[in-house]
Amino acid sequence: xxxxxxxxxxxxxxxxxxxxxxxxxxxxxxxxxxxxxxxxxxxxxxxxxxxxxxxxxxxxxxxxxxxxxxxxxxxxxxxxxxxxxxxxxxxxxxxxxxxxxxxxxxxxxxxxxxxxxxxxxxxxxxxxxxxxxxxxxxxxxxxxxxxxxxxxxxxxxxxxxxxxxxxxxxxxxxxxxxxxxxxxxxxxxxxxxxxxxxxxxxxxxxxxxxxxxxxxxxxxxxxxxxxxxxxxxxxxxxxxxxxxxxxxxxxxxxxxxxxxxxxxxxxxxxxxxxxxxxxxxxxxxxxxxxxxxxxxxxxxxxxxxxxxxxxxxxxxxxxxxxxxxxxxxxxxxxxxxxxxxxxxxxxxxxxxxxxxxxxxxxxxxxxxxxxxxxxxxxxxxxxxxxxxxxxxxxxxxxxxxxxxxxxxxxxxxxxxxxxxxxxxxxxxxxxxxxxxxxxxxxxxxxxxxxxxxxxxxxxxxxxxxxxxxx
Length: 470
Prior knowledge:
Helix content: 40-55%
Strand content: 15-25%
Structural class: alpha/beta
Number of strands: 18
Low-confidence stretches: 1-13, 69-73, 98-133, 383-387
Distance between the termini: 103 Å
Shape: elongated
Strand order of the largest sheet: 8-7-9-10-6-11-14-15
Largest sheet: 8 strands, mixed
């Protein structure tokens, strides 16, 4: 939109968009034809301009042609140069007092205007360098969202359990979060250092237990889940969930109450875990929904954390080559939302979490840390027991009544056999016979039970006892 402002009788300024045209004193002395030609050349040779400005220049040129019949003035070439400078952002004239310069065109460097004594002064705004943000990893994402319930999947030896262990330790260390863990398909010694930071950890191998033994272990696991749920700021790790929920598990009937309890807590915490500051993490090497009980399928409500080898690489573990497991990937894709591994990080191991494939992250050596802790504890225990009185002597000194004579003789006899294994026949023939003690079964069993209750001996195998060594 054009605005016409008259400053004085002989000084007129037109402001058109961001372009200002300054007219000086009426022209004196150049022919209309030369002036029109000069203006036309200026309009053509100038930088690209908007249609509005082009029309204004044409009108301005026509007006000058008309005026040239009545006035003579400065050379038209000077006028053309002034118009060219103005269109290209170069100030053609000093702005009269009381006027504020129009803003610069948008393709000019950004400037802020600061007013000092009512006079505008351009001040350059320094450009802020964009700081590169650290790329997220699976570990950093898990630690940043500790109370999100998750399902960890991955082929064997890809590091799914190790990632869960490291992440839970980080959360435990930084938030004093209590970790509850159980694995009823535990084998080897990995769990002993993976979960050394757990407040409670139950480990067993149901496949090697009979019905009575399995019942006791499952009962303990149920009690652990209940203790977890009554604890704020806590995470429950259910390891080998696919094994527990398999329809072909030999202890399937015994496991039903445990699986029903876990399914109920998954349903609750998948929607309110962050508010409660509680989460359930499950770990499994596979997920074939058709072979799982209905309660075990509750895992599908959890957020996926899928750990894998890189699709174009292999990693080695104990001489075995481990690559991307496409069969497992298809199982997971049939039950969870997961993107194809077409664009993935370059590391040997990758993880799909949230909506992206990310690097797993740098994972510390948990075994090394556990060994150091164990060594410190052992040294501490040794230091604390150096001055501890001998338990045999302590118990012997407490047996002062004459009715305790046989027991006192038995403890003295045991003291001289520290670190050795004894049989019932040795107690009967070596101790009782040589010390004038009644050799009947009732008397000897009483002596043995008292020594056991004082932890002077412990059962080592069927009908054998190991004497404590001090």
